[in-house]
Give the backbone structure.
Amino acid sequence: MKKTIISSLLSVALLSSYPLVNKVGANTLDDADNAAQTGSKTVASETTDKSQTGHEGMEHDESGEIPEGLAEAENPTYPEGSEVTIQTDHMPGMMGATGEVVGAFDSIAYEITYNDTKTGEEVANHKWVVHEEVENAQDEPYQAGDEVVLEASHMPGMQGVTATIDSVEDTTVYMVTYTDTETGDTVENHKWLIEEELGEEVQDSSQFWRARTVEEVQADVSQYDTLEELQNYEVVWGDTLWAISQSTNFSVDDLTEAFNIKNADLIFANYTLENQPSLEDSYENQIISESKKTRDMDNMGDMDNMGDMKHDESGEITEGLEEAENPMYEVGETVILQRGHMPGMEGAEATVSGVFATTAYEVSFNPTNGGEREENHRWVIHEEISESTKGAFEPGEEVILEANHMEGMEGATAIIDDAVTTNVYMVDYQPTDGGAVVRNHKWFVEEELAQ
């Protein structure tokens, strides 16, 4: 069941003053701009290039052929014909693209790594292949680390290869026809996207931030020859200090000093350079939007209840929990939170304080302290469940929680809503709606983070 999620959208340009040297995690709609410009951090953010290996220039199978045995979803969040906005970047031109659902199916989706039979290159963390596209697929879902032979032919060099499963999602998968944001071309019958990677079509395009090119900025600022004149320039959505600097004779340091800008990585649209507000003042001018309705926000249950939760910030690690060997984001790395498990979280900048390999569960339970029922709480991990010595639990099973992320959780009986074999992250973050830094928040999965 869909809910209208009211999300706060700052009319800001969150940006980085200098181009990235290593990763292009620039969280914009346009990968070409990412490479050319800044590592800006925004609310609408992409995953890093670590999940992009081998996707550049890929040729797609657009036939729309459905694997034998794949069952149509009975009650998908986005039925066939729904207009959606893609909120992931499996490949360039996808993030922020609008499209139409042409098929929705219940299956197990696998993230995989394999060597392309055509080029010999490794394709790392390819998303997604469904269970029915595995040769001689067993009845039970495969687990992370299993090797399988692919029957999928989404792209040349895939069919028949042996792949290693990186992560597993029991979910609804979607086939989508969309318009590439870079080329304007129509991509037919793209396979696959999962529900967390889609949102209903956003009519207000300002909800997605894209760094403007130097050429675009230069066209607006070329008339200003001095800092005194430039002070009257009104920042446009997508501007960066770096781009403004490149378009004028003034360095970023010149601009921050002249206009008393406290943070070179943060300027606000619709204000002149001379009158840039502080971060605190900007929250008084938030734009409240009801147009973004995403399944991932839908699944987090009643945010009003979660907003009152008291967190365990001890950072204590459950016995038996193993550190991840090759996580996408290492301890100490800065990330942007892509999911709003609670108010002030989505779009917040965070630092990874721990990363572990486990099975993460979405659960529903009645708190032991008599509070309102928590629906679709994300996440509790396998090691935080009583009798966790058995294998991974399945959706629908009842478990006893040993986690104490919030009051009333420890000892509660919970129903497993979803199970994901993945890496989980503990992070420190600064809420976007103000307040103190939240320490050692548990947990995020990789799909909920970006750089």
Summary: The first strand starts at residue 7 and ends at 9. Residues 1-57, 202-208, 280-310 have pLDDT under 50 and may be disordered.
